[in-house]
Specification:
Layout lengths: L9 H4 L5 H14 L5 E2 L11 H12 L12 H15 L8 E4 L2 H12 L5 E6 L4 H8 L3 E6 L10 H7 L4 E7 L11 H11 L6 E5 L15 H4 L7 E6 L12 E4 L2 H12 L7 H12 L3 H22 L5 E2 L7 E5 L17 H12 L1 E2 L1 E2 L8 E5 L4 H16 L4
Parallel strand pairs: 1-11, 3-4, 3-5, 5-6, 6-7
Antiparallel strand pairs: 2-8, 7-8, 9-10, 10-13, 12-13
Helix pairs in contact: 3-11, 4-11, 5-6, 5-10, 12-14
Length: 405
Amino acid sequence: MASNAQSLNRFLAGAKPSATYAVIDRVAARRASGAAVISLSAGEPDFDTPAHICEAGIAAIRAGHTRYTQVAGLRALREAIAAKFQRENGLEVDWRDTLVCSGGKQVIFNALAATLNVGDEVIVPAPYWVSYPEIVQLCGAQPVTVPCDATSGFKLTPAALQAAITPRTRWLILNSPSNPTGAVYDRSELQALAEVLLEHPQVLVLSDDIYEHLIFDGRAFFTLAQVEPRLRDRVLTMNGVSKAYAMTGWRIGFATGPRWLIDAMEKLQGQQTSGASSISQHAALAALTGPQDFIAQSRAVFQRRRDSVVAQLNDAPGLHCELPQGAFYAFASCEGLLGKTTRSGARLDSDEAVVHALLDEAGVATVHGSAFGLGPYIRIAYALDDASLTQACAAIQQFCRSLAG
């Protein structure tokens, strides 16, 4: 008799749990046992949601806006999203070409599930956000990972893209600023990728811009559909309020793209979750249409933290970290630690072993780079208060100095 596990959907059976959430679970278990842990694993701002946004959510409850909304979202919010794309990205967007989802992850899942068939391929530059290849596989398609190491600034090159495209390629996923590296594509780099894509009209592009506003050193942000308008009918541009407005728990993501794709995603969502939380949608409307000063303030804080954390990581023997251009992650090479032994006798034979040892012996939680498709690295989220970051970096330095071999 087949076990219950054997009766699982074959695509789900082959999927791996999120490495990030696995670390979060380990942190929770250690804290429950009384251990002190500083977690640098979660990808969410440590700031509170701005007060005017919270008040909009409270006002929505008090006004009775607690019922179902249209599947694609409140018209007022979709109009605000269209205005955002025009104002900040130079994209002429009709509100009907937008979709509101329960988080950015649902945007991605909707898009891929609505378009992929068995045998299709999706190009995923590595390092990548851990969920990209898993979502592709859950949709029955094949992720094609393309290594993008430090020599290219962790960015996809036109030559690597050209080599990865086959007749089965259906999507390219492009994330800028990047989780986990903080790499940012400039206009010329996007244009060079666009020239390759123009040669392959069967390839759609998912432009994940969720970290758009967390970009440092005065750099300008560009998105692919903005840089190359000839690709507009093949690009899904996704964003959300989670990172820019510290609204991770509100669960609102959104996108714009060609009408046929938005309609297909709406159809899928209508049989899946229906519309996003009405209260969260009203809060997101306040975020997009209200004061925007929080964005610049939080960006300045993250840039200061970046500078401090990267400097301290580079003072740790065996670690090396390039200066990220955006997001709130440091992606540090731990190659210099491999082969060494910890005080407890654990041998560091992989970046995952380094991560486990840092948590067990230094009380600092990070995520191993191989979970993002490129090792040996560790990803450190500096979305934490300055004092905790300083304490965590000191513990990492002490750990590195204590290694033998």
